[in-house]
Description:
single chain; mainly alpha; 2 domains; disordered N terminus
Amino acid sequence: MRRILDLINEPGTIDEMGLATLRDGLSEALFPGTSTIQTRLRYVLFVPWIYRRLEAAKTSSADVAVAGRRAETALIHPLRDSSEDGIIGARAGASLARLPSSVYWYALVRWGVFQHDRSRAWYHSNLGRLARQRLSVAAAADDPGVMDLHRPSWHPRLPTPPDGFPAGISFALTHEEADFVEGRIEERCAGTLLAHLAAAVGQVVEGPPWVQPAARNVSPEVRELVELARRFSLHVEGVPLLYNLLLAERRHDLHGSDEDEAWIDSYQGRISKWTEDEAEESAFNPDRLWIFAARHGVHVPRKQRRFVESWSARIGEIVGAAHGGSGRVADDPQLRSLVADRERELKGRRSRFDDMARLMDWNGAAGVGRMDFRWRRVRVLLDDLHRGLVA
């Protein structure tokens, strides 16, 4: 569980200002099937190997949850022996709260490794019937609430596990395994940045997704999406910077600590630098976000939309008025009220501006960092994939 919390706390993943709907919508459009708590790519094979074995053993729906947990936690010890990073449950062991099958289920469905567009709970409930294939095609077709259970649970080209699995396993994909996963991404995520980068062996470099060489060779639609993500990420980076400045000032007013004075100086400097970066760009137009959201079925709450539009309008006024106005962002009463009101709107009585216990627990950096749209995780998955493709 500690490993999961470490991943969630990566810069840019904590959402203090209620922008997760837009961040996650852009993340999914760029890198479908991924998440910030995925660790290594071979789990998308470990999980189906386990379940396919349970199917072969005619495990009942009543027993699959317990049997699955036992099999999934049995991965931990041999993976520890491999001395690799990214082991789910490395610290918690058999008591881990979130199993690999939970972490990776959406990827299995989205990439077509699991062949039914259904949840893990549905699969557990139907596993016995899936294994025995008791329902006829006609019966399944007559019931819109039941999938055609004659369809295999798992993709027919799913590679077989290594002899003795899970003994001796590591996160290194064989060439056959990597080719299978790349094929699933290519087929089910065609036209996305993920698919382009999956095929770009040896071309993934240091830096965010928008500096990747393969990102320059995508379709105009994907290029536009990558640019929107880049621009939005920069534009709203100033929000948590100002939020943390306000917290440092408030706590300093109450207790006058040298630590908070240092935080104030730090955030004033970071806001100044951010304002300079923002001033080098064309004014951000939130309408591009709303067009994206409409096209991709992303529901943006009205208050979130209003906050983004208010932030953009005021930043445009300040930055557009004079390039020397970096201090005005940190001191602007309208922006200060906007950020404080947004936090109160989201957290109510638990707002750090009103709850002194939560203010005192503030660690100095709540939700800071540019949005990277799952890139830290995706890059590890791509590295695993590319190593396998050249194996």
